[in-house]
Amino acid sequence: MKKDDQVFIHEMVRELDASIRTLVAEEQRLVERLGDERVAELTEYWQKQLPADEEEAFKLALDHDDKKLTWIWLRLERARQSRARAGQALMKDRT
Predict the structure, then answer these.
(1) Residue 5's Cα: distance from chain center in Å?
(2) Do 86 and 19 touch, CB atoms closer than 8 A?
(3) For residue range 2-44, what is the model confidence (pLDDT) as tens digits?
(4) Where are the domains of the chain?
(5) Is residue 69 a contact partner of residue 31, using CB atoms and an 8 Å limit?
(6) Radius of gyration for the chain, computed over Cα atoms and rounded to the nearest angstrom
């Protein structure tokens, strides 16, 4: 791998790590605000465990914090996947 590519990936990793830390902190703040019961309901919704008819009704009842938490979960999932791919690319380069 070219040196420029390595530098780019290392910088991307630093930015992803910072984003993940920020998102985790915001997730924790929202989880505390929403409470265990609501977070459990949102987790079921997020993991697509609700029946289709309940899912539609549930989506209509989402408030701002509910939507923000699911948005954070999506962003965390994507950031962690990107971070893993970057780490894999760097590890492949070492072999």
Answers:
(1) 25
(2) no
(3) 888 889 999 999 999 999 999 999 999 999 999 999 999 999 9
(4) 3-94
(5) yes
(6) 18
Cβ atoms of 50 and 44 closer than 8 Å: yes
d(CA 63, CA 32): 16
Name the residue with tokens 């915001």: 26
pLDDT digits (tens, 9 = 90+) for 46-94: 999 999 999 999 999 999 999 999 999 999 999 999 999 998 988 887 7
Q: What is the DSSP letter of 1?
A: -
What's the predicted TM-score (pTM) here? 0.88
Residues sharing a CB contact under 8 Å with residue 6, sequence separation 6 or more, in sequence order? 90, 93
Hey, CA dihedral for 72, 74, 80, 85, is it positive or negative?
A: negative
Burial class (CB in 10 A: 0-12, 13-18, 19+), 57: exposed
